[in-house]
Amino acid sequence: MAKQRKIIHVDMDAFFASVEQRDQPEYQGKPLIVGGQPNSRGVVAACSYEARKFGIHSAMPCSRAYRLCPKAIFVPPRFEAYREVSQQIREIFWQYATQVEPLSLDEAYLDVTYTADFDGSATRIAQAIKAEILAKTQLNASAGVSYNKFLAKIASDIDKPNGLYVIKPDQGLAFVADLPIGKFHGIGPATEAKMQKLGIQTGADLRQKTLVELVERFGKSGQYYYNIARAIDERPVRSTRVRKSLGKETTFAEDILSIQLLTETLNGLAEQVLTKLSEQELQAKTITLKVKYANFQQVTRAQSVDTTLEINAVKRWIPQLLKRTKAGEQAIRLVGLSLSGLEKVGVESETAQLALV
Description:
- The protein has helices spanning about 15-25, 50, 60-70, 80-95, 120-135, 150-155, 170-180, 190-195, 205, 210-220, 220-230, 260-280, 310-325, and strands at about 5-10, 30-35, 45, 75, 100-105, 105-110, 140-145, 165, 245-255, 280-285, 285-295, 300-305, 330-340, 345.
- The chain is of the alpha+beta class.
- The strands form 4 sheets. A 5-stranded mixed beta sheet has the order 5-6-1-7-8. Strands 9-13-11-12 form a 4-stranded antiparallel beta sheet.
- A hairpin with a 2-residue loop joins strand 5 (about 100-105) and strand 6 (about 105-110).
- The longest helix has 21 residues, at about 260-280.
- The radius of gyration is 24 Å and the shape is flat.
- The two termini are about 30 Å apart.
C-alpha cells in the first residue's frame, strides 16, 4: 500500500505589499497599493490587508481603487526585491521538502511525505516553515496541510493572514461536500456560473453528477471536477529545478569569537545536512562554509573533493575552512554549512553512502 501523501501549500500574505511595508516602516498599518498610479490606466498588482477592507483587490483598475480609498498609498512594484525574498523562501522550503513546486513568487506546493523532521508531522513541519520564514524575512505566510494538492491549496486560504489549516484524510469528503463551488481551486467565475445553472452550489451537489455528465458539460475538465468532488487529487508535486545544494545556518544570540564553539556548531549543522541528504538518497562532493561577521560582512569558503563527502570528512574540512576566514579574530554572528555537487546515491559508486558514521 502506498504511503499516505503529506502536502503543504504555502502562500505568502499580501506578498508584494508586505515587502513594501517591511522595507518602508511608514507604510505599516496603512492602506497600500502596489501597481499603477491613481490616475493611470494601470491595475492593482497587490494590496495590503488595510486596503482590502475598502473592497480593493488585485487586478482592479487603480482608478477604481483610488475612488474606493483616496487615502491609499500607491507605489510602483519592485520585482527585483520580491524575487530576492522569494529565493530566500524557496531555500527554506528545500530544507524540509523532497519536492517543491512553485506556483508564483509567493506560493508553492511542498511534498513532505518522506521528511523525517518533527517525527514526520506535516503540521509541525508547516509551523516550522512559517516560523523560519518570519525569522528570516520578517514576513508572514499562511499554510494549508492535507493529503493532496487540491485540499492543501484551499486550506492555506482559510485562516489568512498568518494562518495554518489542516485537512486530515478522514475529513476530506465532508470538507469538500460543504464547500461552495466558487471556493474550488480550478473553478473560475465562468465555470461557477455554468455549474450554478445546473443546480451545482456545493461539493455535495457536484458529487451527484456522473463522470459522463461532467465530461459532456465541461470536456476534459470533467474528470478533474469528478475527482475533486470526492476529495481525490493524484497530481504529484513536481519540482521545477534539480536540487543543487542543501544547507543549514544559524544565527548566534551573541557574537562569537571562540573557534571551538564555532566548530561544534558547524559540526552539528553538518550532521543535520547529511541526515537530510541521506533521507533524499543524495550524495555531495563540495562543502561550503558561510560566515557573517558582527559588521554584517559575509564570506564563503568552499572545498571540492573527488570522493563522496561523509560526516567524518566534512568534520575534518570544517576547521580548514574556518582558517580561511577571520574566525577567532573577528566576532561572528552567523555560520552556515551547505553541501553541493549533488547526485543520487549509487550514481558513481555502488558503495558511496552518506550515512552518519
